[in-house]
């Protein structure tokens, strides 16, 4: 049994725990009764004062306390020093050793330290595996934090709605700051080519990563830098997620019918869409395979609205979060129920850079099939260019956190991924993915040198 300070017994919810573990307030009578009944009683004469104000030299802060000695004399028992060893004399006892002893006495299990050592070993082995599946949950937390903030904002500003041009203006700025901060800190997020976005309407077409985080970062950075808001087309299942209605309404997320998108574009809006959708998010891979199928509705929307198509791509979007989409049964199950049941893992703090390409202007004589093929060719070329710079996650993490003392140094260093030795990258690629590397090195040396010179 142990003696604890009186304040511990005033902590809410601890009464049951204290009773089960045999901790008592420490009055003289209670200690005498416990000792006479054959119990082992532990006490720290220094108490809370010693815990808070002692130092690394292990200074005793007992003051004039001698009640513990009086209890031992009255009960006629021996005092056992917690820091004594019969063989080696005085030596410090670690907190873990003391905890192990207490657990052994409480549970009655012999050699409990062996079980604890095995448990700690399993924890260290399994922690990375568990962590990579839990980290994507940060995005879910951010989404629901955004929803909570929107409810607070709505409650606070209901009376001002009649006097505001857009009720959600302040909320959009607030959430843009939240998401941009997360992207800047966790991924060192950068947006390049924002000047290619026209002042008028336009259709931004992007490759869908395992999560839409890069699109959210893009929308937030665009709103902060250019005061321009970009609507996004979402899958049907998103509108059925609990609590998401207010978030979708505030950001003007579109359900995706052709007429709705055309009308929004004709009103001057900027719209982002991923032709591959959820299927591409779940079942594409680290080779950035395009999974558009026969989808050409986005091209028809651009033609009907007479607006340019703006290609967008985020470097390393597949290295941040990945999926287990290679399991065939999950693909079959998705095609049946059309719900994102594929597990995702990662959440790694890799460097993310979003590149905005030059707009593909509207041409009245171009068909939807021709425009779709043109956009697809652009992305295939982009992936070939970026293909020579695919790195493993360890290299990406190192690139992101190198030269941490200076943001400029870290970001400049992050650009050096273009200068990785082709021989070293070739070796790494053929060791890890020998069956897929033929696609990786179809880029000409001239394209590589041109891209390296352009970025450096």
UniProtKB/TrEMBL annotation:
Molecular function in Gene Ontology: acyltransferase activity
Annotated transmembrane regions: 121-150
Keyword line: Membrane, Transmembrane, Transmembrane helix
GO cellular component, one term: membrane
Pfam families, alphabetized: Acyltransferase
Annotated InterPro entries: Plipid/glycerol_acylTrfase
Domain Phospholipid/glycerol acyltransferase: 202-317
Name of this chain's protein: Transmembrane protein 68
